[in-house]
């Protein structure tokens, strides 16, 4: 789309890109933090399960620069300032008004010249970088890390809930035929007299359990057998 100029009522494109980046960084940290809190709630902070998780997520942190850097960059954007320093636009040859590419870059030197206290390891890595960081490449690498973390989280959930899920399948088949879906109908005397029901709340069914296993099969945690 054509990049709009800044007006009194909207952000400039630089502000808008930075706002979107902050949202992505915060969401990725929240994605991990929420799962950690669930593990602590279910197993406890000192449990073997939680320690195993910290070991696994620590391995991702040590292995992937993008995840490690974005984890700390999120704190930087929360407490210090905006991350994207350069926004350049290249237009298409066919229709420049409708085709353009925005190249977003982070300048490591500008990050470490602020008053923000960076993690020592990250600070050394930023100092070693001689060129700016492409936001596109950085986020592509971050998403790869998040996919691997998503797989880890599902493996922990599967291990904890597999037996219960398997027990629910025959129980559900016993209570409801597979071609019927259970539901909850909150009602009142007036509705019963009139014969008109306003609210129907579908309940989790065999279809929902099957969907869980289908989703897990897509990340190779289970194998579906016909």
Structure overview:
It is a single chain. The chain is mostly helical. It is built from eight helices and five strands; from the N terminus they run H-H-H-E-E-H-H-E-H-E-H-E-H. The strands form two sheets. The protein has a three-stranded antiparallel sheet with strand order 1-2-3. Strands 4-5 form a two-stranded antiparallel ribbon. The longest helix has 41 residues. The radius of gyration is 25 Å and the shape is extended. The two termini are 46 Å apart.
Give descriptors for this structure.
3-stranded antiparallel β-sheet, mainly alpha, extended
The percent range for helix content is 55-70%
What is the count of helical runs?
A: 8
| Low-confidence segments | none
- Calculate the terminal CA-CA distance, rounded to whole Å: 46 Å
Largest sheet strand order: 1-2-3
Radius of gyration over all CA atoms, rounded: 25 Å
Mean pLDDT: 87
**Percent in strands:** 5-15%
How would you describe the shape? Answer: extended
The helix/strand class is mainly alpha
| Largest sheet report | 3 strands, antiparallel
User: SSE order, as H and E?
Assistant: HHHEEHHEHEHEH
- How many strands? 5
